[in-house]
Design brief:
Layout: H1 24-46, H2 49-54, H3 62-75, H4 83-99, H5 101-122, H6 132-142, H7 146-160, H8 166-169
Helix pairs in contact: 3-4, 4-5, 5-6
Length: 192
């Protein structure tokens, strides 16, 4: 059945009726995927994603990597982005720290300072603090320092320059070579 559009005048908002249709094939496909997900879920739940991604930090160490990933998520919070996008944005630190002892010291000392502050206030390292507001309060205390400024300054480009992140944030990419957005996507949102 086609969606019916209701339009009283030319400038009015489109109203699409919600129609839920089930077919036997769709039900079987969905239940098959659910069974597959149920079989895989215990293995996925065994190790949190951030812990697995932090293991890629050989130069800085997994504990530092885990804290940096948590910090990146707190500085640039996007619930729709998976941890792997943050890990991709943090990967240059691992490569640069292997060649630059000053950067390695800045990152490891900054994480150690953050963990000490978290231990003093909450009794656990920064990455273990459950409440986001508590972690943000720790970050606000160090936001003027070189460690925080380094992470924030680099992450703003490394996270948002990732073309795989763009569609997840609703950005369609560069438009000038396609004639701009005026006739291509300027007014195509239908949820507003």
């Amino acid at each position: 059945m086609k969606d019916q559009e209701t339009n009283t005048d030319a400038g009015a908002m489109r109203v699409l009726p919600k129609v839920v249709t089930w077919s036997r094939r769709g039900f079987l496909r969905g239940s098959g995927m659910a069974l597959g997900a149920a079989a895989v879920a215990p293995a996925a739940l065994a190790m949190p994603a951030a812990d697995g991604l932090a293991g890629a930090f050989h130069t800085l160490g997994p504990a530092t990597g885990k804290t940096l990933l948590r910090m990146a998520r707190d500085v640039f919070p996007h619930d729709r982005l998976a941890d792997r996008y943050y890990a991709d944005a943090m990967a240059p630190y691992e490569r640069k720290a292997a060649k630059d002892p000053a950067l390695k010291a800045l990152l490891q000392d900054g994480v150690a300072q953050l963990d000490r502050a978290a231990m003093a206030r909450f009794g656990q390292p920064y990455a273990g603090v459950a409440a986001e507001d508590d972690r943000v309060s720790l970050l606000k205390a160090i936001e003027a320092g070189p460690f925080f400024q380094k992470i924030r300054g680099d992450m703003v480009t490394s996270l948002y320059d990732n073309k795989a992140v763009w569609p997840l944030l609703g950005y369609e990419g560069s438009s000038w070579e396609k004639g701009g957005y005026l006739h291509r996507g300027f007014n195509d949102i239908d949820w507003l």
